[in-house]
Write a structure and sequence with these properties.
The chain is α/β, with parallel strands linked by helices. Strands 9, 10, 11, 12, 13, 14 and 15 form a seven-stranded mixed sheet that branches. It has a four-stranded parallel sheet with strand order 3-1-21-22, covered by helices on one side. A four-stranded antiparallel sheet has the order 7-6-8-16. A hairpin with a 4-residue loop joins strand 6 and strand 7. It binds one RNA strand of 86 nucleotides through helix 7, strand 10, strand 14, helix 11 and strand 24.
RNA sequence: GCAGGUGUGGCGAAAUGGCAGACGCAAGGGACUCAAAAUCCCUCGAAGGCGACUUCAUGUGGGUUCGACUCCCACCACCUGCACCA
């Protein structure tokens, strides 16, 4: 009888859903916990191939762990707030509230069709007031603990989305959502003090089990850099001390080579020194000019340095009292360290180029050829070159001089050791309608005032006009009934904050809410948090992984410090799934014309075939081009599996199959654990091939095999199990195997003479090394190869090979 | 430029110091069939030989080792991330 996947798959999907087959039990009395998490679905459309690639390994792991006796928590939810959902709603003309509700139902129904074993009772959605109450609560805690502040500052602004963006959302000067050029604008903005957490985040990165390239990207984003901060005194032309300037450097060893210092055009120190600057008009003009340059211009002009000399002031190099001219230049970034650099043209390529253009002299302080370009730290540190032109440090090795010079400056009281980070505080507000409202009231008398916890959630009001406007004011500002309120502190007239939280806010704590999704008193019960602990395996795409994981670390650290959660580490292991590429090797997306929908594949071939095919194409972390090629092989594999029920002969495990079954069991345990589904599939195929060759399978062998295959192909195995054994496969436990059955009684080993293959010999694996060596030497081909020669060395690798070294 | 990763048949890929190419696709040949589909069997890295076989092969060049896809050094190509970060 043929396998009718359409009816059978539907039957099991309905059964699992309505019988709540995969419900996780809080505080299970006997089973240990295991927490598998797949990232939020984005509620802006249908599931795509990426979901098939990303969810199935997590599902297989969850199903495998249940057989292994774990109490598995495997939940799902929707990321519904934010630009993707709102833009999709605007595009379709549907109100976001309705759009999101339909969208969530849609993706949940689709995920049932993938046969995913989620605990659907724990489904959460970031735009649900029961959920965002606690997102707002976390913000309140941040605010009340001084970790959130509002400040007028230069921020990234997307003129197309009409909203402020975080640095993370505007990488490369382009809006992450719409690709428009981002401009820098001065605005009132909310920030979270994430920079304070830099060292703790680095600790999280060290502890988590995650691919090295992803860790590196995160360390890069944090951008930790150790160095020395030196104070320079500033003088005017009359040699009067008019202030001081702090400069951070990682190359304190070059301090004798300073020939100019440069300030970022935006540096406020310039305004303070205005009265002493003789060419103020010129400087002001340069500042205006650079302010107009877009990020893109500044980047593309890297080779061509611009700047202006500041007349009327100079600074003194504290190490040798040399007078040093001051410039302003836009290669110096205002946002990093103190927005000023000490320039040593001989040993820094950017300083070198600037000096060439402005005819500034160079002082070489470390040996090397500086005639064509700077000798930079990478070069002189690796060679540990000698110092020159550096007073008492001449002739000393650079590495030694680095510490000694720093110490001297510190002893002089003009410097301190310092660590800087590229990562800035998290710009946390968006001028959009579709997000969590800030639980903050702006009072003309009291300033920013937090709502009381009992007034949460602060519901996002329904408005007619939710489109962003061109001035970049939040659409909520037009909801006057909602905006006007009383100050919780003084009771006088006040207004609500009308910006909303960014959508990464709701994503930054979701793994905690799944643990206790319906709790009205707390974000989650502390004892339940302790029971479920950190996520054992968190899977998802790699697209926004750097930001999402860092924000997750940040919030978890903060919540840990205020006693709301029991651990600093949200995740034990984080896996980033590769992409499904289209036939041209490009990322397959909804917008690409040749995008294939997983539902289309399921419709044609069935869910089990689709699940296996996608993962037989390549490894979990690899990017794999989509193709239907090979899918027939999977169909015929499952057809052969189906036919096994007509081949049953005997009850217990047969001598013919005990080795193959045990080896398969061991291999699958490793592969499911490591999400290596491609090799798991091939191991299963090898077993079926063997059984087919032998023409029979025993009942016990089939029982075990169906359990082995179930995590990958849950439908066909459930059906076969029910038909053959009249029981439910989900009630089974993973079979055990005996170590002694992992070795065959007889194997063929390779025999080499001087590392060259001369023969293959069947040996009895119970024999000793001596017995095997003498057996091998009796073999005709081996005899011929070693005749008249002395054996100087005998190498024996058990059950693999013998290598005889002769002279 | 810096960092991380990858490089193996016609294709997707296995093998992490021990018989390279498991498993699958495609291709070719055969069986069954009036015929086709489906199914089953055989061949399938390259070159040479009628042949048991031989030689060469894991991006390139060196090295370590009895033995290297695997470890070390240098280089090339591609992918990803960051990029005037002092």
């Amino acid at each position: 009888m043929d396998y009718n996947f359409k009816d059978i798959e539907k039957k099991w999907q309905d059964k699992w859903f309505y019988e709540k087959s995969f419900k996780a039990i809080d505080f299970h009395p006997t089973k240990p916990k295991y927490y598998v998490l797949y990232e939020f679905y984005n509620i802006s459309g249908n599931l795509h191939m990426g979901h098939l690639k990303g969810t199935i390994p997590a599902d297989a792991l969850a199903r495998f762990k249940r057989f292994k006796g774990y109490n598995v928590l495997f939940p799902i939810g929707g990321d519904a707030f934010g630009l993707p959902a709102e833009n999709a709603a605007i595009k379709t003309g549907i109100n976001p509230h309705d759009f999101v509700e339909n969208g969530l139902n849609n993706v949940i129904n689709q995920s049932r069709k993938l046969g995913l074993s989620f605990d659907y009772d724990r489904t959460i959605c970031t735009s649900d007031p029961d959920y965002y109450k606690w997102t707002q609560w976390i913000f309140l805690q941040l605010f009340n603990h001084g970790k959130a502040y509002k400040e007028k500052s230069k921020v990234n602004f997307c003129p197309h989305c009409n909203t402020v963006l975080s640095n993370e959302d505007s990488q490369g000067g382009k809006c992450d959502r719409c690709g428009s050029e981002v401009v820098q604008e001065v605005r009132w903005s909310w920030f979270l003090k994430m920079r304070e957490y830099a060292e703790k985040l680095l600790g999280n990165i060290d502890r988590i089990n995650m691919a090295e390239n992803l860790k590196e990207a995160q360390r890069n984003w944090i951008g930790r850099s150790e160095g020395t901060q030196i104070t320079f005194q500033i003088f005017n032309d009359n040699d009067e001390n008019i202030g001081s300037l702090d400069i951070f450097t990682t190359c304190v060893e070059t301090v004798y080579g300073i020939t100019f210092v440069a300030l970022a055009p935006e540096n406020e120190l310039l305004d303070k020194l205005k009265s002493n600057i003789k060419n103020w008009n010129e400087i002001e003009e340069y500042r205006k000019k650079t302010a107009l340059r877009t990020e893109f211009d500044r980047l593309s002009d890297q080779k061509d340095k611009t700047g202006a000399k500041i007349e009327g002031i100079y600074v003194v190099n504290p190490i040798n009292k040399a007078k040093v001219p001051v410039f302003t230049a836009d290669f110096v970034l205002a946002g990093y360290a103190t927005g000023a650099v000490m320039a040593v043209p001989s040993h820094d390529q950017r300083d070198y180029e600037f000096a060439q253009k402005f005819n500034i002299p160079c002082i070489q302080v470390i040996e090397g050829d500086t005639s064509k370009c700077a000798v930079e730290k990478k070069e002189y540190l690796s060679k540990n070159s000698k110092m020159m032109n550096s007073g008492e440090f001449d002739g000393m090795n650079v590495k030694e001089a680095k510490t000694k010079i720093a110490q001297k400056l510190i002893d002089m009281g003009v410097a301190e050791r310092k660590v800087n980070y590229k990562m800035t505080d998290w710009a946390f507000n968006r001028q959009r309608y579709w997000g969590e409202p800030f639980p903050i009231v702006l009072c003309p008398h009291c300033g920013e005032v937090a709502l009381d916890e009992k007034d949460l959630p602060l519901i996002l009001p329904q408005v007619k006009d939710y489109l962003p406007n061109e001035k970049g004011d939040s659409p909520l500002s037009k909801a006057t009934d909602w905006v006007n309120c009383k100050c919780p502190k003084c009771g006088r007239e006040a207004k609500r904050e009308t910006d909303t939280l960014p959508n990464l806010a709701g994503l930054s704590w979701c793994w905690l809410r799944y643990i206790d999704p319906h709790n009205n008193e707390k974000l989650a019960d502390f004892e339940k948090l302790k029971y479920w602990g950190s996520v054992d395996c968190y899977t998802g795409g790699t697209e926004h992984i750097t930001r999402h994981v860092l924000y997750a670390f940040f919030w978890q650290n903060f919540l840990y410090e205020i006693g709301a959660v029991p651990t600093r580490d949200p995740f034990i292991r984080k896996m980033g799934s590769g992409l499904i590429l289209d036939s041209e090797g490009k990322k397959m997306s909804k917008s690409s014309a040749n995008g294939v929908s997983p539902l289309e594949v399921i419709d044609k071939y069935g869910t089990d075939v689709a699940r296996i095919h996608v993962h037989f194409l390549g490894g979990y972390e690899d990017n794999t081009p989509w193709t239907y090629d090979g899918i027939n092989g999977i169909t015929s594999f499952l057809d052969r599996v189906w036919s096994l029920q007509d081949m049953i002969k005997g009850e217990e495990i047969s001598n013919e199959h005990i080795y193959e079954l045990s080896i398969l069991n061991k291999k699958l345990c490793e592969d499911y654990e490591n999400l290596k589904l491609n090799t798991a599939i091939s191991a299963l195929m090898i077993f079926v091939k063997k059984v087919k060759e032998d023409g029979f399978i025993t009942r016990e062998e089939l029982r075990q095999f169906l359990i082995f295959l179930n995590p990958l192909a849950p439908h066909i195995t459930s059906e076969m199990f029910e038909r053959v054994f009249k029981k439910q496969i989900l009630d089974q436990t993973w079979p055990s195997y005996d170590e002694k059955n992992l070795v065959k009684s007889s194997v063929e080993i390779a025999v080499q003479v001087n590392s060259k293959m001369v023969a293959k010999v069947n040996i009895d694996t119970s024999k000793s090394q001596e017995e095997i060596l003498s057996q091998v030497k009796e073999e005709e081909k081996v005899k011929n190869a070693i005749i008249n020669k002395n054996i100087v060395k005998e190498i024996y690798v058990p059950n693999r090979l013998v290598n005889l070294i002769v002279k």
